Amino acid sequence: MWCSSWWPDWFRRALHARGFRYRLHSKNVRGRPDLVLPKHRAVIFVHGCFWHRHDGCRDATTPATRLAFWQAKFDANVARDSAVRGALLAAVRGVATIWECALGKPEKVAAAADQLSTWSLSETETLELWEREISPSTREGEDVSSSS
């Protein structure tokens, strides 16, 4: 049975099935990333599109009431995320950000885990996955930026 609120658990299971071993919410790492991959010296943040302001995402809406309050809160979240990311890039090999919209369906979770697995073996310092980037129907060589 699939429930959309279980996507973080399904993502962790998919990573574990691919051989990844991780620590959850490590207090010893700045920013308390959602997952720490000690073997790969990498961290993974699974960001909610609403709270972390995923640019251009349909889930990153702004409440109509108390606009100034929400804008200040969102701005502080984005600034903190940026500072943490910068500090971590100086300390670890890689930082991955998986946006909530990328994990809405089981096939998307598997595709995201596959891309993260490929990234972990690469020399690339950062990875950012969102809904349009991990469409399981995207064929090799197809430009994902033009898909809808």
Automatic annotation (TrEMBL):
<protein>
    <submittedName>
        <fullName>Very short patch repair endonuclease</fullName>
    </submittedName>
</protein>
<comment type="similarity">
    <text>Belongs to the Vsr family.</text>
</comment>
<dbReference type="GO" id="GO:0004519">
    <property type="term" value="F:endonuclease activity"/>
</dbReference>
<dbReference type="GO" id="GO:0016787">
    <property type="term" value="F:hydrolase activity"/>
</dbReference>
<dbReference type="GO" id="GO:0006298">
    <property type="term" value="P:mismatch repair"/>
</dbReference>
<keyword id="KW-0255">Endonuclease</keyword>
<keyword id="KW-0378">Hydrolase</keyword>
<keyword id="KW-0227">DNA damage</keyword>
<keyword id="KW-0234">DNA repair</keyword>
<keyword id="KW-0540">Nuclease</keyword>
<dbReference type="Pfam" id="PF03852">
    <property type="entry name" value="Vsr"/>
</dbReference>
<dbReference type="InterPro" id="IPR011335">
    <property type="entry name" value="Restrct_endonuc-II-like"/>
</dbReference>
<dbReference type="InterPro" id="IPR004603">
    <property type="entry name" value="DNA_mismatch_endonuc_vsr"/>
</dbReference>
